[in-house]
Amino acid sequence: MDSIDEICSQIRKLTDRVVQKNLTDGMLFSGGLDTSIVAFVASKINPELEAYTVAFENSPALDLKYAKLMANVLNLKHTIKFFGEEEMHSAIQDVIKVLKVFDPMDIRNSVASYVGLKAAKENGIKAVMTGDGLDELLGGYSWLFHLNEKELKEYLSNMWQTMQFTSIPMAESLGIVSKPPFLDPEFKSFAYSVDTKLMIRRERDEIWGKWIMRKAYEGLLPDEIVWRKKIPLEFGSGTTVFPQVFSEKISDKYFQEKVKKYQESDEVTIRDKEHLFYYEIFRSRFGVPSEVFKDKEGKQCPHCKARGGNPKSKFCKVCGAYPI
Looking at the domain that runs over 4-239, which CATH code has it been given? Predict the structure, then answer.
């Protein structure tokens, strides 16, 4: 087996190649490990690279600090796109139209990406790089950390077969292209061969996902970036406050009436006010999930009756129910 240093060297050379192959003039940039690696490599090839970071106004958008730090280190052309409630409503409509879902977590994450993609397009960018894929390929999610080796391999294998990234169809809907270097066939092929012991590992008294990727760029990127914990995009962009926004706008009476109505008429379980808001947009555009997805094969969600789920999946991609 190759030494850690040799594997890290292979990773850097491979990443250089896949970024070069997928090089664009713009990128979505969170200041997390994944997008920082892409920016580090891409900015050396294209010094005019434009980086877009998204933040919901008046929210604790955790990405800003790190994105600013990394943009300064790399001397990036950095745009921070703040958006308010009016743009939020417009983006939610567009995201639901494109993705055909009413899963709150998916929508909160996707709205942030969509706003960034739209800002890039408005600045004349035709194609955008993202950091998509690295968490799925190299065990970046904290809920994988407790699995034993056999369970982890099985979980990753299932994830690799079913992984989808909303930035790709959303970019397409805007007439631009999303190009994630880590989803390049050459990088995927390498990731499939990585020993899981190099994916999830203890360092500095903590357990880390994507450990080998962190080691590959240790000393090349600031420590705050290399050893930054993975957080969902909704935390980084501040869209985690969406539930609070809808909780204040929708009355308890209206919510209770609609929960009862949709359970009885549509067989859809509404979990909270944010979920209701998204479902009513979905319903007005597409109809009832049991009808919209009735011809699909696969698992049926007991909470929204949508068919077509992966038999091995524990959550519903349409309504976000977990576990099913």
Answer: 3.40.50.620
Instruction: Say which residues have a Cβ less than 8 Å from residue 129's Cβ, sequence separation at least 6.
Output: 19, 22, 23, 24, 26, 27, 28, 38, 42, 178, 179, 180, 181
Residue 305, token pair as written in the block: 């009756």
Sequential DSSP letters for 131-145: -TTHHHHTT--GGGT
Q: Where are the alpha helices (DSSP H) in the chain?
A: 4-21, 33-45, 63-74, 85-99, 104-122, 134-137, 149-162, 167-173, 185-192, 211-217, 223-226, 233-237, 242-249, 252-265, 273-286, 289-292
Which amino acid makes up residue 101?
V
pLDDT at 282: 99
Phi-psi region of 53 (alpha: psi -120 to 50; beta: other; left: phi over 0): beta
Give backbone dihedrals phi and psi of 27, rounded to 5 degrees, phi first: -155, 150
Q: Where are the domains of the chain?
A: 4-239, 251-309
pTM over 0.70: yes
